[in-house]
Amino acid sequence: AELRVEQRFVPESCPRAVRPGDFVRYHYLGSFPDGTRFDSSYDRGSTFNVFVGKGQLIAGMDQALVGMCVNERRFVQIPPKLAYGSEGVSGVIPPNAVLHFDVLLIDLWNSEDEVQVQTYFKPEKCPRTVQVSDFVRYHYNGTFLDGTLFDSSHNRMRTYDTYVGIGWLIPGMDQGLLGMCVGEKRIITIPPFLAYGEEGDGKEIPGQASLVFDVVLLDLHNPKDGITIENQHVPESCERRSQAGDFLRYHYNGTLLDGTLFDSSYSRNRTYDTYVGRGYVIAGMDEGLLGVCTGEKRRIIIPPHLGYGEEGRGKIPGSAVLVFDIHVVDFHNPSDSVSITVNYKPSNCTVLSKKGDYLKYHYNASLLDGTLLDSTHSLGKTYNIVLGSGQVVVGMDMGLQDMCVGERRTVVIPPHLGYGEDGVEGEVPGSAVLVFDIELLELVSGLPEGYMFVWNGEVSPNLFEEIDQNHDGEVLLEEFSEYIQAQVDSGKGKLAPGFDFEKIVKNMFANQDRDGNGKVTAEEFKLKDQEAKEGHDEL
């Protein structure tokens, strides 16, 4: 005689219960007391959708649904006076029939509902939030109010990428994404009139369905954005800043805005080397690398229209904001020459180094960021060269010019005057600027350019006869070598310093042996001043 409601299952969480005026979607089985079924929403494959408390249901069901939670299951016994009474429903419900309903509530909303946002994770740092006209990349799981999954970007392994607030999304999602931070996670519950309405989407989403989106925001930018630079470390001394046309060597970690690493020069143990301001790198990096100092660390945030655009590249998805944490190792310009800084010069500095002089010096060699490459001090011996003879890189030949014994200087050598693009494997990186701290310890004056041997006094008028010790009219290499050695030992002559004696003598002899037969005759023999200007190095 009375309405009877039995709760068969009540979910642990019940944030909202049915009230008169709410719209509900539910499944049911309708049967008579003897168990005979007269109706079922399951058989039709769709929920029963109706407003509660507005006379659209039989009175007993209107009352029985009040207070139900989504996913709650109730057994409802409705007496005839609260069902179809004495008339029944022709061919379906007999007169004065007691009705049993097994009801499962699927969905619940009210026409006055708004989008509900529940944030369950928010990063500590939130420098920017989603605004109207921003472009976002996010992952989501889409479910109905009962928890049934209807869609997931995770399953597709691809973010959902869209503009916000300009009608590209359902209105509820347009609202629900506003104010989010990158990395934030929130649940957005959307009533059907702000989603797909009465018709649904024609696929997975039925009409009048409330939607629940579990969203994590991965990326955010605006088409009007430029790059953002955050200085992390700027050296106290910054004598020079990079300009367009400079060549930079730098390390970097490249991540997406959510922190996902997509590339790192550190993992390759090699700097990234490039010209800046000339289009060799993406536009945002071209701009972000201008104005840096050697040793500087900065973060460069690049929107996709200044990065890899809508298509992305490799591990970089389309429309992704890029974050580069860079460390500038060195830079130079192809027009740079050797830079010399004199740190100490003795008061008595009259004899200056020149081409051909034999020098002994100590040095510490490092990169522009201070990384030590080599040091003669650690070897316990000097480095010895003939200046201008090609025994060192061109920049060092230049840096050692006009130096006096005891002088200390710092020589900075750009790579095109050092070891070039290739460097020295395992020792000097390619395209590296080199820094040498030098102290000149000894200087032996060389010979005039073009000479390998000079006389310290007058030259004998019978020079050939003196060399031709056996007076056979021919001078062999052995005779020639013994004679030169005797002149050097007696102080009458001087060889170019820093070269191997035998090599010099062989070279001098070969220059005199004009027919190449291993012998020098009087006719072949000439002094330097007897040679034409285009002649070889002679006596």
UniProtKB/TrEMBL annotation:
Residues 455-490, 500-535 form the EF-hand domain. One of its GO terms (molecular function) is calcium ion binding. It is found in: Endoplasmic reticulum. Pfam families: EF-hand_5, FKBP_C. Residues 21-109, 133-221, 245-332, 356-444 form the PPIase FKBP-type domain. It catalyses: [protein]-peptidylproline (omega=180) = [protein]-peptidylproline (omega=0). Keywords: Calcium, Endoplasmic reticulum, Glycoprotein, Isomerase, Metal-binding, Repeat, Rotamase, Signal. It comes from the Eukaryota. One of its GO terms (cellular component) is endoplasmic reticulum. It is an enzyme of class 5 (isomerase). The keyword Signal applies. The keyword Ubl conjugation does not apply. Its main location: endoplasmic reticulum. InterPro entries: EF-hand-dom_pair, EF_Hand_1_Ca_BS, EF_hand_dom, FKBP-like_isomerase, PPIase_dom_sf, PPIase_FKBP_dom. Its EC number is 5.2.1.8. SMART domains: EFh. PPIases accelerate the folding of proteins during protein synthesis. This is peptidylprolyl isomerase. The gene is Fkbp9.
